Amino acid sequence: MSAVVVALVLAAVVVWPAAAARRRWWSTAVDAERGPARVGVTVEDVADASVLLALALQSGRGLVQALEEVAQVAAPGAAEDLIRVGAALRWGRPMGEAWCYARDVWGPTATAFVVADAVGAPSARVLLDAAATLRETEARRLEQAGGTAAVMLVLPLGLCFLPAFVATAVVPIVAVLVGTQLS
């Protein structure tokens, strides 16, 4: 019995830290091969950046300059996408192709820029509408997820507590009533 305890302690002290160090080394080596990891971006980050872009464009900034300035103050994931789009526009890519370098969450903002570029209209008002659309869509999605979670929480309650209620409350009462009727 004591040999098993010694083996477990030895494994916990020697083997586990070595395996953890190997995992850290391996993940670092794999990340170095893949290049820098992309930081996530949320809908709220995109909506905030869209509003900032609209304000920058309304103040008279050029599109690429507005993208670069908003990227300096935006969340990391949003800033990365804005820098990519700004670089693509500097390289002479068309508006629709430049927004392909951003993540899919930028869809309404990209559509606003592409439509405004095609029509020749100022894009600031369209960007504000796109930000509002993003926020409304995210609010509806969160509301739906909350409703789904509420329904999913009712299932365990029904499956666990209803049989317990029947076993502790209904069965004893029925047993007492049947016992008094038979006697």
UniProtKB/TrEMBL annotation:
UniProt xrefs under InterPro entries: T2SS_GspF_dom, T2SS_GspF_sf
Membrane topology, as annotated: Multi-pass membrane protein
Keywords: Cell membrane, Membrane, Transmembrane, Transmembrane helix
Record localization: Cell membrane
Span of domain Type II secretion system protein GspF: 52-168
Transmembrane domains' residue ranges: 150-178
Keyword Transmembrane: yes
PANTHER family listed in its UniProt record: INTEGRAL MEMBRANE PROTEIN-RELATED, POSSIBLE CONSERVED ALANINE RICH MEMBRANE PROTEIN
Protein name: Type II secretion system F family protein
